[in-house]
């Protein structure tokens, strides 16, 4: 077997490292899956609440205001409208994004792994240079 940084690498060690990587991937995937399902449920609840609010608003009976005598000002100004024709606007806003995105979290994990690997290579090279 090969000697890596003063350690003898065996099949069991390689399998152990591969197992750790696979388990870390499964845990990360599970976390993302649970997070995405939680967001989907939250969106569904928000849609149901918005639909209920729209139904409640549409059920409100609007009583028309009796028409007033038209004057020269209202006849000349076409932009004026009666209060009975005014409809309250109901706009729904998008839900805010919470937490880090999946890509950003994955990139952070990769960055930390590269940093740890480069630090270990540096320490190993310094030890080897000292022994020479």
What keyword list fits this structure?
single chain; 132 residues; mainly alpha; two-stranded antiparallel ribbon; 3% strand; rod-shaped
Can you walk through the features of this model?
This protein has 132 residues and is mostly helical. Helices cover 64% and strands 3% of the residues. A two-stranded antiparallel ribbon has the order 1-2. The protein is rod-shaped. The model has no long low-confidence stretch (mean pLDDT 79).
Quaternary status of these chains?
Answer: single chain
Distance between the termini: 23 Å
Major pleated sheet: 2 strands, antiparallel
Uncertain residue segments:
none
Radius of gyration: 33 Å
Strand arrangement within the widest β-sheet reads: 1-2
Order of helices and strands: EEHHH
- Name the shape in a single word: rod-shaped
Average predicted confidence as pLDDT = 79
- Taken as a percent bin, the fraction of beta residues is under 5%
Secondary structure layout:
Layout: E1 3-4, E2 7-8, H1 11-59, H2 72-76, H3 102-131
Antiparallel strand pairs: 1-2
């Amino acid at each position: 077997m090969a000697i890596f940084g003063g350690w003898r690498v065996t099949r069991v060690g390689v399998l152990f490292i591969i197992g750790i990587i696979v388990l870390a991937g499964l845990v990360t995937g599970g976390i993302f899956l649970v997070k995405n399902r939680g967001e989907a449920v939250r969106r569904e609840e928000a849609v149901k609440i918005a639909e209920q609010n729209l139904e409640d608003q549409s059920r409100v009976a609007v009583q028309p205001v009796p028409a007033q005598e038209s004057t020269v000002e209202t006849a000349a100004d076409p932009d004026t409208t009666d209060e009975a024709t005014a409809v309250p606007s109901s706009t729904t806003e998008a839900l805010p994004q919470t937490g880090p995105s999946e890509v950003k979290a994955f990139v952070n994990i990769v960055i930390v792994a590269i940093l740890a690997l480069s630090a270990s290579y540096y320490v190993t090279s310094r030890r080897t240079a000292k022994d020479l």
